[in-house]
Amino acid sequence: MTEQVRVIFVCWGNICRSPMAERVAEGWLDEAGITDVELTSAGVSSEETGNPIDRRAQQWLTEAGYRADDHRAHRITADEIDSADLIIAMEDIHVDRMHRLKPRRTDHIHLLTHFDPDAAPGAGVPDPWYGDHSGFGDTLASIEGAMPNLLAEIERLRSRSSATSMEE
């Protein structure tokens, strides 16, 4: 049996970008018929712990056909980082904050824009929380722009996981 691939999306408070990315990835994986991937999201800050997805993010997700319910923000831990196969951060500051948690490994942490061929190298996904409603549409477009290559990376990890399971 193939082990599930674990992917965690990370932003600052876990109420906008990271849950949006989680839900978009969920939709793309469902569309592709891929079911053996565990998706979750977290923040590097605890200030939003327990809060749902921002209402503006919920609206954009729902209008685009993605699920927007059943989410409570939480702060990522070193154990979560260590147990994931792939971690997708929204900005360099999130990568830095995860490194400060001193997990055993960090080679699997990448910026979401790393997977977007139209994004400038090292660019992050700007935080829409501080702007108006339309900023969430820009965030959604950035997330969707990264999905084809991100799904290809998830497929690579699934193949590796499957090969490892067969060897055991």
UniProtKB/TrEMBL annotation:
It comes from the Bacteria. One of its GO terms (molecular function) is protein tyrosine phosphatase activity. CDD domains: LMWPTP. Residues 5-153 form the Phosphotyrosine protein phosphatase I domain. Transmembrane segments: none annotated. InterPro entries: LMW_PTPase, Ptyr_pPase, Ptyr_pPase_sf, Tyr_phospatase_low_mol_wt. Keywords: Hydrolase, Protein phosphatase. PANTHER family: LOW MOLECULAR WEIGHT PHOSPHOTYROSINE PROTEIN PHOSPHATASE, LOW MOLECULAR WEIGHT PROTEIN TYROSINE PHOSPHATASE. Belongs to the low molecular weight phosphotyrosine protein phosphatase family. This is protein-tyrosine-phosphatase. It comes from Ammonicoccus fulvus.
